[in-house]
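mind reviewing this stuff:

——
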Amino acid sequence: MEEIIKRFPGVGIACAGPTGGTRQESYGFADREDGIRVDERTVFPACSISKFITAICVMKLSEQGLTELDKPANSCLAHWKLRDLSGEESDVSIRCLLCHTAGILDGEDGFYGYRLSDQVMSVVDILEGTTAYNNRPAVVERTPGSVFEYSDAGFCVLQLLLEDVSGKGFADLAKELVFDRLGLRETFFGTREHMETFSQKGKMATGYKGDGSPVEGKYPLSPDLAASGLWTTPGELLTIAKDFVDSLRGHGRILCQDSAREMTKSPENFPWAGLGLFRQGEDVIVSKGWGENGQCMLKIDLRCDSLAVVMTNKDPKAPQEESGVEQLLDTYLYH
């Protein structure tokens, strides 16, 4: 375990067992150059774990009668429409977007490398494929439901949908529906304003590249908030995961039991996929994040009601099962 921890400048860990008690541990540096050590309040990039939170928001609005999973996403989109290769409006469902079976293909080498100093871009700019951040238009290129294609662009569609349906900015909506309900104060989606505010507080973990050098500007910006813009602490992410488990048991603070259970259902032919999350067999739920400034992972084992989170601030240039992040997580999950 010590060898794995040394691979990263900083590591934050939080775990909880069936008794409900929480354990947190911190290692290394949030900012190596300035000598700032990781502690329980260090805010890490959650990267694609953002999708788990986005799915919770979709399900909450569904409970309120504002969305329906199996209706076309376009029925909820007011300012932009998702189209197929012929240019016609697609009838792809919200459910397909949530489980990456909508048939949208992301561009190569997209969805990273954006900085606070770069020109402002909108979600529509990203979806239209007119920026260097994403140079491939979001179009339904395969028959919905026929293939699994992991898609950040699909979650950009969901971000726009949530904003159109609620009339609120995505970051504000997630704060209202999730973060405030759980009393979270160090968790946010990284709008420019939030990034500037939290970076001034000195709580954000500086990102490090695979070669160990700091990322330019320390903190990359993710305009595709619903796909990869979440920042949080291991402890607060664990709080969200614990409430999700409580929802599965029928007593969560955010979702009703049916909504939580719906998120764990897999589409036909793709048993590893849920709605905004993934499955390892029948009873293990995972969510992974990996970007140029960090790698992280959340795992929930429903057989023993154990949960664990590992967050880091370096791109290890290898997936979680190879970088050691999943091995470290399992050490805390099962011991």
